[in-house]
UniProtKB/TrEMBL annotation:
Taxonomic source organism: Spiroplasma ixodetis
InterPro entries given in the database record: Plipid/glycerol_acylTrfase
Name assigned to this protein: Phospholipid/glycerol acyltransferase domain-containing protein
Entries under SUPFAM superfamilies matching the protein: Glycerol-3-phosphate (1)-acyltransferase (SSF69593)
Highest taxon of the lineage: Bacteria
One Pfam family it belongs to: Acyltransferase
Domain Phospholipid/glycerol acyltransferase: 57-116
Length: 118
């Protein structure tokens, strides 16, 4: 990670962290308060920032083989805890079915993952 990128964009990081907490509380109280599409688009923007911050470049092959109307199971190899977010960033909500994930047990203990994933 480029430390200067993080330092220069700390207000954005703080705003994202605050907004994720308030959105999580709203969704836990009543899931219909914030639509799934709005949450999905919001999270994709934040993942784009994470990719920029950590200089992550993704190359996608055969995305046309993803199911358009049916659900599917996405399995990440968990090289890092960012794997589900990176898979999410590849999916286009308007073309393909929304994604869901089965997370590893350790992520439930992570405060950051609770704000963004659960």
């Amino acid at each position: 990670m480029n430390i200067w990128k993080a330092i220069l964009t700390w207000p954005y990081l703080l705003q994202t962290y605050s907004k994720s907490g308030s959105m999580t509380r709203k969704v836990l109280k009543d899931p219909s308060l914030v639509s799934e599409a709005k949450r999905y688009i919001w999270l994709k923007k934040r993942v784009r920032y994470i990719k920029w911050l950590y200089n992550i470049k993704l190359t996608v092959h055969n995305i046309e083989n993803w199911p358009k109307r049916k659900g599917c199971v996405m399995v990440a190899n968990h090289q890092s805890n960012f794997d589900p977010l990176l898979v999410l960033s590849v999916n286009d909500y308007s073309l393909y079915a929304p994604l869901g994930f089965i997370a590893k047990e350790e992520l439930k203990k992570s405060h950051l993952a609770q704000r963004f994933i659960f």
